[in-house]
Amino acid sequence: MNILASLLVFPDPLHPAVVHFPIVLLLLGAPVAVAAVFRRPRWLAVVSAVLLTLGALGAVVAGQTGEDAADKVAETPALEAVLEQHEEWAESVEVVAIVAAVLAIAAVVLGGWPGLARGAGVLAALAALAAAWCVVETGHHGGVLVYKHGAGVSAGWGGPRAD
């Protein structure tokens, strides 16, 4: 297999590979959005908008790959309850992250009107903090799925190889 072909191979399942991007982007975007409220450099608001927008897009992709992964998991009653909580929090991440991104973009676009820009920035920071909380809750339930119930873990996996 040549290098180009190996680069075009997607991991299976894709969800664990994709989900970490919105986690990082949204958890980093929240404090940057808060800092943008209290600091005046315009670039801070731009960085906040970029992080939150990429995080929101990543959350949507993670949600889609999560739905695909959920279809492949053998559900037990205990697993089903945790999976439902994970899915509900993940949907909250998507919605709140999109709201935070739109508000952060508005704060940048409204830069010529300081009062409006500041108001949009404050709302973006609050939404970004809410999105970060939703990310933490989603991750917690995802961790319970994997580490307590073994969801998505191959039965043949015996831990790290001792090569």
Question: What gross morphology would you assign?
Answer: elongated
Proportion of strand residues? under 5%
Q: Care to count the β-strands?
A: 0
Q: Please give the alpha-carbon distance between the first and last residues.
A: 23 Å
Estimated helix fraction: over 70%
Overview of this structure, please?
This protein is an all-alpha fold. The protein has one domain. Helices cover 77% and strands 0% of the residues. It has six helices and no strands. It has helices at 3-7, 15-18, 20-38, 42-71, 77-109, 114-148. The longest helix is centred in the C-terminal third of the chain and has 35 residues, at 114-148. The relative contact order is 0.16. Mean pLDDT is 87; it is low at 156-163.
Quickly describe the structure.
This protein is mainly α. The protein has helices at residues 3-7, 15-18, 20-38, 42-71, 77-109, 114-148. It contains 6 helices and no strands.
Topology:
Blueprint: H1 3-7, H2 15-18, H3 20-38, H4 42-71, H5 77-109, H6 114-148
Give the key terms.
163 residues
